[in-house]
TrEMBL record:
Matches recorded under Pfam families: LRR_1, Pkinase
Residue positions binding ATP: 175
Membrane topology of this protein: Single-pass type I membrane protein
Name of this chain's protein: non-specific serine/threonine protein kinase
Top-level taxon of the source organism: Eukaryota
Transmembrane segments: 82-107
Upper classification of the organism: Eukaryota, Viridiplantae, Streptophyta, Embryophyta, Tracheophyta
Subcellular location field: Membrane
EC number: 2.7.11.1
Keywords: ATP-binding, Glycoprotein, Kinase, Leucine-rich repeat, Membrane, Nucleotide-binding, Phosphoprotein, Receptor, Repeat, Serine/threonine-protein kinase, Signal, Transferase, Transmembrane, Transmembrane helix
A GO-annotated cellular component: membrane
Amino acid sequence: MLNLSHNNFTGSIPSSFTGMVSLTLVDVSYNQLEGPLPNMRAFEEAPMAALRNNKRLCGNNTSLDCPIQERKKANKHMVQKVLLIIFSTLGCILLLSFVIVGIFFYIHKRNPSDTNMTQEIETNLFTVWSHDGKMVYERIIEALENFDSKYIVGVGGYGTVYKAELSTQVLAVKKIHAPEEDSELQDLKSFENEIRALTEIRHQNIVKLYGFCSHPRHSFLVYEFLVRGSLKNLLNDMEQAVAFDWNKRVRVVKDIANALSYMHHDCSQPIIHRDLSSSNVLLDSDWVAHVSDFGTARLLKPDSSNWTSFAGTLGYIAPELAYTMKVNEKCDVYSFGVLTLEVIMGKHPGDFISSSSFINASLTEILDQRLQPPVKEFVEQVKLLVEVAFSCIKESPHSRPSMWDVARGLPVDNGVSLR
């Protein structure tokens, strides 16, 4: 027997009582209970005295009967609960369906250019290698506003250079000019192998090549950006040319020689620049020179002494290329000699380079007239540069020195600060 009388319990009697199979008698009198009694023997056979003085107990007992209103009310509450569960479930399913449909339409109605760009990257035609991490294609295109002309900082024979300002660094992006319709497309695999080798180059006087994009839509090279720009533009600017004094000029020529010596003699496969000019030498904020623009450079294979494709900038091209078309390291040596004279004279020597008056000219006639003559400690160094330049522009390639010999023979700092 379970005696729960005189406890002032309220509400309905829990249905869990039906699990108490051993319960035979119960007393819930003198409480505030209401509703139907549990469907079990102990309540069905309970005397009226065990149920008296409650609020409104009914049913499941011979002494009690639930009014019709109570049964309807209980049924109504049950129906409401069931409907609430059903509509809540349907609402969640409907909301999830709207979300899925919305995502579907967003993906398929995006800007076509975004979709095309994603497809381009997924085709593996876009490749970037870098010691400093992969450059992100979308970020470059976004920074340049799809190669808007306002970002152009230079134009050459093989491409246009843009300045791309990303959130973490500034890059120089050289967009390669599209080939003519009748030109044969270069083998992509061969091109990739060459660029991969060039990205391995790490020399203080060679512009860092971070990577490239080879794709029908955009083909470009990604370099580090150097703030002072090209040597050519610097020499053509009066204010900068005056600031570019003799000690800085001696150092720049030495920097260029070191870069070419490294390319010719210290790489696993010698690299011939093939287009060395003042446009392809860039200076950083400390006036340190960096050789750039390998747009026409080729790796010279160990089993080949030349590469027979004419390239270069007029005024810097070795004379033998006019009839032999054989490119080797001595072609770069000739271009270096012309470039050295350009640094000393402040302008390209032009036709004066082959005239008898140039050979018989004095040092003061050759020097850039915008500068004061070099002071005593630099006179001998500048003279040596002139002598080296003349040895590099000899007509016979075999008479020209190697860049390794040139780099060894050029003057050193002599304790003078060049920056």
